Amino acid sequence: MAKNFRVFYCDILFIQIFNKGFFHINTYKNKKVVVIGAGVSGQGLALLAKKLGAEVFVTEKNAINSEVKNIFSQNNIKFEENGHSQNVFDNADEILISSGLRPDTEIFKRAQNSGIKLTGELDFVIPNINAEKIICITGSNGKSTVTSLTGHILSKLNLKTGTGGNLGTASAKFTSEKFNAVVLELSSFQLERAQNNLKSSVSIITNLAPDHIDWHGSYENYAKAKSKILSLRNHDGWGIIQLNTNALTGKIITLSHSEQPLNNFSGHIFMDSGKAFLIMDGAKTCLFNYSDTNLIGEHNFENVAMSLTACRLAFPEHEQEFDNPKNLLDGFKALPHRCERAGEINGVLYIDDSKGTNVAASNTAMKSIKMRKVIILGGQGKGEDYAPLAEVVKAECEDAVLIGEEADKIRVALEKSGFKNIHMAKTMKDAVKISSELAKPGMCVLLSPACTSWDMYKSYKIRGEDFCNCVKELANP
To answer: 60 CB contacts (<8 Å, ≥6 apart)?
Structure first.
C-alpha cells in the first residue's frame, strides 16, 4: 500500500486510506449538517464538516466577529448570529454539538426533540485525526499543564506533535495532516457526549474534585463524564490516575506519595521527597528530580511525573532519551495564571494562580507551595461548600484577603473554622496592597481565588493580569 495519504471519491461516500491500512468511511458528502455554536469548537466542527463534503449551517446565540464571518464565507459556510431561528433544523441530516453548549439551553432541548441525529465534538472529530498515537488528558485541575507539557516533551523528542483540544486549539485542527502524536485536553462537557472510541494510547485523569456541578447536575455525573476517558481508550491503551481515583480495569498506572500502591495495578508512580519514580514489572526507574523543573509546587511535580510517564508509555522506542529528563523539560514554563511567578518584592514572592477557580484547585495550590502565605480569595461562586477551604487556609496561611461576591460566604466559613486573620478588599489593587502590608520576607502572597472571575472580570486571565499589574505597580510606585 502506498505510504502517502490518499482519498478515493464516490457519489455517496468516500473512503480515506491511511498509511497503516486504517479505513475511515466518510458519509458526509452532500449531507446537511447544522453546527450549534461558533466558538473555537464550533468553528472547527463547521470547517471539518465542510471539508468532508457536507452542506454546513452554523447557528450562534451571540454576535459572530468579523474574522470568523470571513472564514465561514470563504468556505461557503452559511450562518446566523444573535439567536437561533425557529426553522434552523429544517431538512438537517445531523446536528453537531460544540463542546460548551449547556444541556439546559433551549436550543439543545430543541435539538434533542427534533428527532435528528445529535453528534458531540469528539465522536465527529476523533475518527478523522490521523496520528500514530493520541494521548487524552482530563481532570479537575492540572489538565492544561499536563497537556502542554506532554506536547512539549514529545516535541523535544523530535516527534511531529499537535497539542490542543479544550486547551485552545480545536481538535478538528489536527485532521488535515499526519502527526506522530496528538495530545488533547478534554473537558467534562466534551466527554459527557462522547460515545465512540477516543483512539487514545494513553488516557490521563490528573485528579477529580467537585466542579461544574451546575452543568452536570451532580458530582457523580461529573465524575462519570470524566471517567469516560478511560472506558473509551484503545483496548490496549494505558490509563494514568491518582491512586484515590476510582479506576476501571485494564492497564492502569497509579500515582501517590506512597511507594507501594494499595491495589494491584499495572504500575505505579511514586512521588518521593525529591524525586519521582515509575515502578513497573519489579523495576524502579527514576522519572526526574524535582530540581529538573522550574514549576512551583508539589502538584506540579505530579503533573510532570504524569506527563513523562505518558510519553514513555506511548513511545517506548525513545527510552534512552528519557534518561535525561532535564533536557526534555527544559524551556517549559508555568502556564499563565497557574501558580505563575508574578514578582518578588522585599523578600515576598507573589504568585498568580487565578486559574484556581474552585475549592479543590485553591486547596491544592496552598498545600503544594511550602511557604507561609497570605491568600487572596473570592469571586463568583459555583455553589461549593467553603468549609474544606477554610480548614486548609487555617493550616497553611497567616492571613486571608477576601474580594468579590463570595467574600462574605468565605468569611463566614473561615470564622466557623476558628481562623481570625480576615481582611476585606473591594478591588484587586486594594487586595494586593493589604497583602503586601501583611506578608513578611520569606512568605508569599498567593492569588488563588477558589471562585470564578465573572463578578469582576470577563475571565480568569484578565483577573490574573490585573493581579500581576498591581504587583508591578507595587514594585514601581
So the answer is: 37, 38, 42, 79, 80, 81, 82
Query: Which residues have a Cβ under 8 Å from the Cβ of 96 and sit 6 or more positions away?
Result: 33, 34, 35, 36, 42, 45, 46, 49, 119, 120, 121, 124
- What are the two backbone dihedrals, phi and then psi, of residue 119, each rounded to the nearest 5 degrees? -130, 130
Reduced to 3 states (helix: H, G, I; strand: E, B; else coil), residue 73 is helix
Place of cell 475571565: 459
Res. 260: pLDDT tops 80: no
Pairing assessment for the beta strands 14-17 and 6-9 based on DSSP bridges:
antiparallel
The SS3 assignment for 181 reads strand
The rounded distance, in Å, linking the Cα atoms of 31 and 43 is: 18
Would you say how long the chain is, in residues? Answer: 477
List the alpha helices (DSSP H) in 174-238.
Answer: 188-192, 213-216, 219-231
What is the full DSSP assignment across 419-464? ---EEE-SSHHHHHHHHHHH--TT-EEEE--SSBSTTT-SSHHHHH
Kindly tell me if the per-residue pLDDT of 212 is higher than 80: no
Coil, strand or helix: which one is 342? strand
Tally of CA atoms within 13 A in the half-sphere of 10 that contains its CB: 9
Using CA atoms, how far residue 174 sits from 3, 178, 184, in Å, is 19, 8, 10
Answer with the residue of higher pLDDT: 103 or 46.
Answer: 46
Looking at residue 5, its pLDDT comes to 29
Residue 75: partners with Cβ closer than 8 Å, 6 or more residues away: 46, 47, 50
Q: Which residue has the higher pLDDT, 333 or 277?
A: 277
First to last CA, the chain: 68
Is the distance from CB of 447 to CB of 352 less than 8 angstroms?
Answer: yes
Cell numbers at 50, concatenated: 465542510
Retrieve residue 13's grid coordinates.
461516500
Residues 6+ apart with CB under 8 A from 309: 240, 253, 269, 278, 287
Please give the share of the chain, as a percent, with pLDDT higher than 90. 79
Confidence of residue 211 (pLDDT cuts 50, 70, 90): confident
- As a whole number of angstroms, the distance between CA 477 and CA 475 comes to 6
User: Which three three-digit cell numbers place residue 395?
Assistant: 493550616
Of 172, 431, 441, 185, the closest CA to residue 307 belongs to 185
CA–CA separation, 302 vs 40, rounded Å? 29
> DSSP string spanning 234-293?
-TT-EEEEETTS---SSEEEEEESSSS-SS--SEEEEE-SSEEEEEETTEEEEEEEGGG-
